[in-house]
């Protein structure tokens, strides 16, 4: 079973369990489109998926968790536990957060540049010469010059 088939199967099961016909979900998705999604023959956009989940009374994350558990062949409760462990690990590592990380808007290059700036200025305040910083950090002399504090 591929991902679209598993997604369609779970959507159909939730819809039927909620007592809704395809026509009953018309405000989210037209009947023909929903039929194709449930058969695994057509993908669904994120916005339409959001609307459909609202109509079905289930969060997108829970529905997708059921799909993922089915894809890996694991009981939903065991998969939920695994996801909780992964979430805790990612939160602890700072890779996920519920607040906006404005530093991410600068991208990888921007983060690396900020890390270099802080490291260069810290080593400068410790009294290291520019070439010592170049060797220690493995950056170019131009990078050190760019972030060198003028006194």
UniProtKB/TrEMBL annotation:
Entry superkingdom: Bacteria
Which residues does the UniProt record annotate as the domain HTH cro/C1-type? 11-63
The record, for PROSITE patterns, names: HTH_CROC1
Query: Which positions, given as ranges, span the membrane?
Result: none
List, alphabetically, the InterPro entries matched. Answer: Cro/C1-type_HTH, Lambda_DNA-bd_dom_sf
Descriptive protein name: Helix-turn-helix transcriptional regulator
Q: Which organism is this protein's natural source?
A: Pseudomonas carnis
């Amino acid at each position: 079973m591929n991902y679209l088939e598993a997604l369609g199967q779970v959507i159909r099961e939730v819809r039927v369990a909620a007592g809704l016909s395809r026509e009953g979900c018309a405000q989210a998705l037209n009947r023909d489109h929903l039929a194709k999604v449930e058969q695994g023959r057509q993908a669904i956009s994120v916005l339409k998926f959001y609307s459909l989940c609202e109509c079905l009374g289930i969060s997108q994350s829970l529905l997708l968790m059921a799909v993922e558990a089915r894809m890996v062949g694991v009981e939903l409760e065991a998969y939920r536990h695994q996801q909780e462990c992964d979430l805790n690990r990612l939160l602890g590592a700072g890779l996920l957060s519920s607040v906006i990380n404005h530093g991410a808007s600068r991208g990888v290059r921007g983060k690396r540049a900020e890390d270099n700036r802080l490291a260069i200025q810290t080593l400068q305040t410790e009294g290291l010469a520019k070439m010592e910083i170049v060797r220690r950090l493995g950056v170019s002399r131009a990078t050190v010059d760019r972030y060198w504090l003028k006194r």
